[in-house]
Amino acid sequence: MATSFGGSNIDPTAWEDKKCKGESRFPAQVRIRVRKLCKALEEDAFRPVLHHYDGPKFRLELSVPETMALLDLCEQEGM
């Protein structure tokens, strides 16, 4: 669960760039709180839950209903 607004290089050691120490290769970040550790779902399991905008492509942002549905899938899988 997100615990902050997005920012740049919130954790510079996340995916640290080996060429530029102290900088992340992915500087657009948000702090999170782990709610539950789950095994990875197969794409076939979560594909129907996500909003698709161009064939197989889906938005990276999750809506509240999508998030709840994904959590339900994890529970069903016994993760």
What does this 3D model show about the protein?
It comes from Acorus calamus (Sweet flag). One of its GO terms (biological process) is response to endoplasmic reticulum stress. This is DCD domain-containing protein. The structure is a single chain. With 79 residues, the protein is an alpha+beta fold. 22% of the residues lie in helices and 11% in strands. It has two helices and four strands. Strands 1-2 form a two-stranded antiparallel sheet. A two-stranded antiparallel ribbon has the order 3-4. Strand 3 and strand 4 form a beta hairpin. It is globular, with a radius of gyration of 15 Å. The two termini are 17 Å apart.
